[in-house]
## 1
Amino acid sequence: MNRNIIILIALITVTVLYTAYTEKMRPPVTDALVKTKTLTTEQAAPDFEFTDIKGNKLRLSDFKVQADIVNFWASWCAPCAIEFPQMIRLAQATKDKSVFIFLSWDEKDEDIARFLKKHAPSGMPENIVIGHDKSRSIAQDLFQTYRLPETYLLTSRLNITDKIIGADVAWDGEAMIRRIQDLSAQ
Amino acid sequence: MRIASLLLIIFAAFFAAVAYAETPAQTSFAYEDFKHLPVQHGGRIKPVDSFARSFLKTITGKESVNGLDANEWLAETLFDPARALNRPVFRLFTPSLLGLSKDKRYFSYAEIAPALQTRADAINKLHATDAKNWTEDQHELARIQEASILYEQLLRSFSLVLPLNISVPPDLAKAWKMDASKPFTLREYIGSQQDLEERVKKIVRRKGDDVTKYNEKEKQVATFAFEMATLELSGANNMLFRVMPAQWDSAQGEWFSPWAMMQSGQGAPATAEYFAGWEAAAQAYNSGNADAWNKATANLCAQSDKFTDSAKVELELAYNALHPLNLALAFYLLSALVFAVHAMRDNGNSWVYRASAVLLAAGATAHTAAMLMRVEILSRPPVGTLYESIIFVALVCVLIGAGWEARKKNGSGLLLAAVSGIVLLCCAMGFASEDTLQVLVAVLNTNFWLATHVLCITMGYGWCIAASMVAHAYLYERAKGRSADTLFAPVKILSLIALLFTAVGTILGGIWADQSWGRFWGWDPKENGALLIVLWLVWVLHARIAGQIDRPLFMVGIAAISVIVALAWFGVNLLSVGLHSYGFIDGIALGLSLFCAAEAALIGGLYYLGRKRAA
């Protein structure tokens, strides 16, 4: 009988130890496979080359000092027209801390020029670069962006931290200004 | 339903036109890498192999079809939907329900979709009623419809990147700078969608919505826009094949199908590359290019290591390939057979007996390995579903029998282990289709209580069954006129241990209920069932200790615990009430009734015969 009691105690001990072990094990999907293995919050932005509207060849890595805001847009995209003036104000408010790279899907330069004239009549701050992505290869193949507008916020080390879909954001609000300032310090 | 079917027919027509006349040479396509790829399904990440097997089993009832294994079948369904449409994969038990030929058992989607279409109203009305009141035919109809909806989703999973047989109006092709050498796909179109919408709006603003007023070019643009919108609609809500890993916190760990990834804007640079890999694999398969397919899947497999625990994937693939529970069952059967030979020869501790013991040990090893693999794959204790409880109780019984045999060495423990292993595993196999190594419903998803309450109570079931089996043996021996008093002490010990586990398990269950539901006891059917086992054991044991019943009646009481356990274990799920009603119930009512009746007759009969002999 004593032996049976020992077996029972051993069984209970094993159960308790096993429980302690399983409590440490993470449940499937929610933790183990996502938080530790995938880049859910920050990943390096792919470096890409583009041509700005002045014809200069540039690379994303040329802007590795400030926070970078990469925005995909087009002149025919209505939400882009809504957010563009707000983003100009944001660019002005964070002049020394950020660079805004607007990559347009427009085919014709005159469409871009007309858009800029309409939505930035008094010109643009120096920390804004307007570039082309006519083939959409940067947007689709590198960033998986298929709809406009989409904006990626990058730290000064060119790590992506946020993706903002659509224009439903107060771009020139205090919160966004603080966010860009934070990113420039990272 | 009608809209869905209409869309599918249009969708099929577009893809059918680009289907290749020749079957891709299946033998040259390698599926080793493809089956490793991770997919989120049933709340967890699993290899494509598991997804393919469980899905194919759902619709065909088996893990291969027409000479294609599950992975080959899945690849065809995903990447060559036009061919897959005509492959007979739907197993219909009553084809006449859909007006289809009774001579066949398997039908293609192309056959059942139009038939379901004609019964759409009836199906819609059926879904408005309570499923509890459905006839068997109505259940079958609902099953076919559900399977067809899921199959439809699979067929469309990669429609985004498969070549379309649609000619793009020259003006648009020029404006979008399309590469004529590349096949036109919906993915190409999605990026130009807003531009197309603007163009159509301009036409409508200029000329209204009367197409007859449009010139030829405008008509082409309007027609193209309609075709593309229709095709895009066919991809809407396509959520089934979630192979794109979550990248953003907002996704909360949820993976996305290719369509959902694109439509929800959940893509990121890390998934862009991975998606390109899937696109390459899809197009390689669709064009019958085995080399490109093999390279694309190998590349995908290498990339997927970033998103998953590859050791777990390997383990699950091994589990799928080895079928360790089938192996265990085979060993138990062999052990029982060899033991029967030994019993007939009756020559003591012969090599035949030792062979039987070795086979039993092999079965127990495979059985234990299966349970451990499941624990690792699911990252939770081994018992969470009714199916799992059966295989766990089977293992408990086998180990009890093996332990007893190690001590007594007279074959009785061996017989107990082999018979309980065979019976319970066969019983579990009957419900194996329910087993998809699934994640648990929220109420169960806590490792602490699964490892304490659930394991304790199911171990209690195992000890109860072992006690009951030995009590049966006692009654049998007595009915044959032989003395079986040596079995009295083991039965008493087994029933005391059973009482310990079930009582502790029941109390732990109460504590869990108090934490989860805010009350210790709620007279829930499952709680009542567990209590019934405890009360029954307490009653029978006390009655014997107090001398109120003699040994044979005590044995009758312990033998009958199998009925009490069966009712508590399976019966309560049949009631479909209470907080514990998450087990499967289909098809067990008759089996349970027959088991109870057979047990009552057997125990009663043996007791009567024994009493007659004694008299």
## 2
Amino acid sequence: MSNKPDVWQGTLALMILRTLDTMGSMHGYGIARRIEQTSGDRLSMNYGTIYPALIKLEQEGSIVSHWAASDNNRRAKYYRLTAAGRRQLQREARVWEEKTAILAQFLKPSEESA
Amino acid sequence: MKQLRTWLRRLCGTVPNSRRERELAEEIEANLELHIADNLRSGMTPDEARRAALVKLGGIEASKEACREQSTLPFVENVVLDARFALRQLRKNPGFTCTAMLMLGAGICASVAIFTFVDAALVKPLPYRDPLRLVGVYELHGECLTCNLSYLDYLDWKKLNTVFTDLEAYQHNGFRLTTSAGTQMVTGTRVSAGFLRVLGVSPILGRDFSVGEDALNAPHTVLLTYGTWQNRYGGRQDIVGQTIVFDDVLSTVIGVLPRDFHFAPAEPAEFWIPLRPENGCEKRRSCHNLYGVARLKDGVTARLALANTQLIARQLELQFPESNRDQGANVAALTDVIAGRIRPLLLILLGGAGLLLLISCVNVANLLLVRAEARRREVAVRGALGASPARLARQFATEGFSLVVAGGGFGLVGSFWAIQLLSKLIPPDMLARMPYLLSLNLNGRVLAFAVAISLLAAVLFSIIPSLRLSRDAMLGATHGAVSCGNRTVGTSWQRLGSKLVIIELATAMALLAGAGLLAKSFYRLMHVDLAFQPNHLATLELDGPLERYGKDEQAVAWLRRTLSRVAGLPGVKSLGTTTVLPVSCNCNTAWIRFAGKPFHGEHNDVLEREVSAGYFETIRAPLIRGRFFTDRDDRTKPPVVVINQALADAYYPGEDPIGQKISFVTRGEKPMEIVGVVGNLREGGLDEPMRAAIYLPFNQSTDAYFNLVVRTAQSEDALFPMLTAAIHEIDPDVAVTREISMDDRIQTSIPACMHRSAAWLVGGFAALALVLSVIGLYGVISYSVSQRTREIGVRIALGAQRPAVYGMILREAGRLSAVGITAGIGCSLASATLIQKMLFSTPPRDFSTLASVALLLAAASLLASFVPARRAASVDPAQALRAE
């Protein structure tokens, strides 16, 4: 197995929302690929895990889906962000930034002990 | 909001949906194809491309399963599945299902039906404003804790107290109602003008009595109950303002009371009229005929109110030593006044029904255990296939719950029917005096109770099989269960099962003991010494117009004509009259003093009845000494009196009372000479203590009211129309009422009804409990025998004699019964004091009852274990050994 870290619990939804925000309408495979690419291929995920996350977001009303023809002329299910999803993205992004900032503060090399 | 939306959509998802499944498969497939196409573009061979894409996807089925879990509520979905499985299981086993449902249904039905009565009498708030602030107010004298107030005392208490916002008085009575159809006797209550205001009740039509409307010079007015308005006046809106002839006086109807209004202490009462101090009694401070009802001021407790009224009573005692000597005060919560009498009965019945429910639950639990045993293989297999203990426990819980829902529904329907039946069994007289029992219905509280006991049962049924599961089925017993089937595992069930049987036997014993005590008490009550012969006695009440029979000579002439006219009717053997019939109440008392004995104003309170010549002979009361009255004992002769044995014993111990004289303390009448001593006629209710009594000749102490008592050779009921016709021939304006035989009167009296219902209902519960517990014992023993067939076969093959096998099985059963019965005796001894209030001349720890009940239960248990023992003894060793 590769040593790439898995997608952390709870962050997948945020990544999906962000991906759809920048890319507009996308299908599940595209979203998964895009997430890996955005991480600079540092993240690895089972593409299967994207589907329950998509269903959950759809149930929450953050995204909506429709069937459309794909690049290679196959029918695929496309997802796009709703207004509520955009608000959720902004909210969660802010929360996440705050969390990482706090954690970064903790993990900074200590100055006092020197 | 978002959570709710998600939850709702997931809930919708629990409904199976093939379209969603198809779409999901299509989506995954489409995305897979896109991935493969990408892989091909990056130079992989088609096979590699497909495999790599599948690996990256992480398994199609796992993804789908994860999606399914996300799109539904797995918990709800499992419950639905479990319920369907449970119903299938129950349907597959109709014998078990029916038995369990019947047992549960019976327990729930009994509990809910009894609780409906408890609710109506004890839980449902009284139809008054803030009913818990209301109290009954009484005078207290000697053993009489809730004695009447006299009118003058009432006025003083009302004026002097500092604890009540209002104190009002009432007196229940019979009245004459004259209509175009004639005169009849009706029930009514006289109340002081503020009575309804203190209760916080206002008429639905017309107005309440206004202040001062209970004064002597106020115009006569009357309020109707809702029932009277409907039944007598057709619910006419214009009834208010009309006049009726009530008690021979024109009175104006001023209003109609609410439909749900009742006031049990003064019921039955069709008419409510102001309490005008117009009769002689209300002019004397020593004549007590009223009860008080009051509302406590804010912040005042009943205890404080009692202290205050006691203080007033003491003041009055000093002020009026002649009339108020030893007259104390008592204050009781109105809820106690209204339902206090029936409370012990209802609580006992509720307890009995509860125990029955317990036994039926335990029995069903036992059945479930046996089933759990039979399903060990299934459980083990499901466990091996990955079902978690929690998941299996949930399956059993669902089954228990389904069973309870079915049994509970069954019981609820049954209780609806049982309530109808039970309320039909209450005699109308008793119902009229307990009007709160008229509004029985399955209301929210009753349904909540039904749901609560069902939930308890469901929890019990879920826990018991799960207990077994957690103990061994899950902990590596799988291989044993699968390979050995049912052979080795019976013992642990038996341990739990026999504990349950012990609980059942103990409960049955306690119920049987209670039923035995109540039955004995009922028997003693119905066989209490009446000192007269009640059979073949017809009784009825006559009430004549006062202006026609108010004078002595008028009343005597009326009585003589009535007696001689009725005596000529066919079938009449003898007859007499009394102002108060026997077996009614220890009421109508008078204070007497004894000529020639020291007197310090003490209140020698004795019962007083006015009886005609021939009365004692008619009811066949025993003459102890002297003579009874004759028709010649009238105003022209010196006054005479007959006393009962109790009075002779109390006041003339070791003396001959004949020829002695007694007189009333507060009435200025000539002393009366004692001419006879009669046996202790039971004047009060069957359960009331015997009291001293004096009997005056009607001809010397007349009234426009009396009860006719006729001894007849034929049926009493056939006589009543002739009696009424004869009385109306003499005077059509005489109201005749309460035509009833003395036997019926005794049978339907409140103590008889209460003890009868206690004895029969608890008896019924106990009988069911006996059957259920014996079935439970039978189940355990026969299961044990079926488990040990092989062992018994070996024993017999090795030379064990049949009697020894019998003995072995019976010993096992005997041990269980002995433990159960002993525990039961302990329980009954402990609980006996709880039913003490309902016991009449029966000690709560009655040895003979306990012993006979224990014997009965032991015999039933022996019988139940004899059948399996016989089967064990007839085991054919060859077959038993070959069978495995």
